[in-house]
């Protein structure tokens, strides 16, 4: 879709090719003798292999508009299609020749995202900057890990920060500092679990909040079932659940030690951060070569498995705060072909985080409109 | 004026703005629009007479990238020649007295094109009429007849001889 660089006109009737150059006739009279025949014939438009829902489109446009004047917090539930929500904003900045970047906490996600952007914007120079890829710092769309942001001084007119509540970015003043000095324009935060700091800024009117409570397949978010029992009973209960189910289960444990014990008892593979073949385990679980997988919180976010059920052992453990629990519950029901999934939180007692997690998820499902925009004025 | 000048439009502020858009903002696409509703009329008026244009400054035309007068009359779909030559002066930026001296800057260089012919002289706008008069005086001794047509006429000169 062509767009005039000067007056942002997109009405095709005003464009005419004169002596080999394109002219926007809507603004030509305003320029008097300085009228130059120029407009951006290479305007970009993103293309996706699937269609966006009305809700997603509405959010995408809202964010694009808001990002022109303010920081934006996109609160989208797990599996809502967060990346698609910022395509419009990226496209807008590319067409206005403004610098735009996307930054994420982890290298793997950065590489994945860069690939997706390359497919969506085939004519745009998309580069990824992360460990092992630091030679080329020039691109139209730059995808980086938060760590690498120190290389970019006041470089971005708009920076999209994916999952500000994820490790290692979360609560890290150094990475936070790198990020803030890299932006000269506005920041767009993307997360399913915004922390209090971000929400506070929204309340203070310093940031706009856009909420998306709906997954593209429109099915409700799976609500976790709480099962109260002491730990050793939990393991037996889990064994029982697994034997009765013909589905694939992802089992979260609070620590390395517990994971090793449980995986031994249940005779199941165990995935954790320092696991040498983590990639392969993930692959094999994805393709159902492995039927059940025990894991630490390393797989709480950033992965999409199809048709899985989720269980958490010792869900009362302090490592499972509200955000983590929401992310874990969000692993189920992502695939439109399998939009539902069982989520079981096995715990020895109730905690505020457990209650808050269920509360938030129920609230999201109950929300009257899937989309909401909050812009408070100072 | 000894000769009658025909016009299709009144030269008001709006027309002036549009002509400025064509000539200075170089909106070439707009140029043929003025004549468009009257093309068949003008073609009939011309018949098989010889069409000649009032001169434009060569430097200006080069700067502009296109010949404005030719663009304005492009709807006629025929070869439009200009047997004159003009120095680089802009009538619109001169005082009345200065304008009356335009004839000092105009020369007829292609007599053969008009010798003994019935001629139709075209211009875009007639304000003082001095440019047209100068052209007419130069070709008078050579031609059989002269018909003058402009797109717009300054209201002070309007007479009942409008072809409409």
Describe the structure in your own words.
- The complex is a heterodimer of chains A (378) and B (164).
- Chain A has eleven helices and 16 strands.
- Chain A has 378 residues and is an alpha/beta fold.
- Chain A folds into three domains: 43 residues, no CATH class; 159 residues, P-loop containing nucleotide triphosphate hydrolases (Rossmann fold), CATH 3.40.50.300; 142 residues, Rossmann fold (3-Layer(aba) Sandwich).
- In chain A, the strands form three sheets. Chain A has an eight-stranded mixed β-sheet, sandwiched between helices. A six-stranded parallel β-sheet of chain A has the order 10-15-14-11-13-12, sandwiched between helices.
- The relative contact order of chain A is 0.12.
- The model of chain A has no long low-confidence stretch (mean pLDDT 89).
- The C terminus of chain B is likely disordered.
- Chain B has one domain: 3-Layer(aba) Sandwich (Rossmann fold).
- Chain B is of the alpha/beta class and 164 residues long.
- Chain B is globular, with a radius of gyration of 15 Å.
- In chain B, the strands form two sheets. In chain B, strands 1-6-5-2 form a four-stranded parallel β-sheet. A two-stranded antiparallel ribbon of chain B has the order 3-4.
- Helix content of chain B is 28%, strand content 21%.
- Classes of the chains: A alpha/beta (378), B alpha/beta (164).
- Chains A and B meet through loops of A and helix 1 of B.
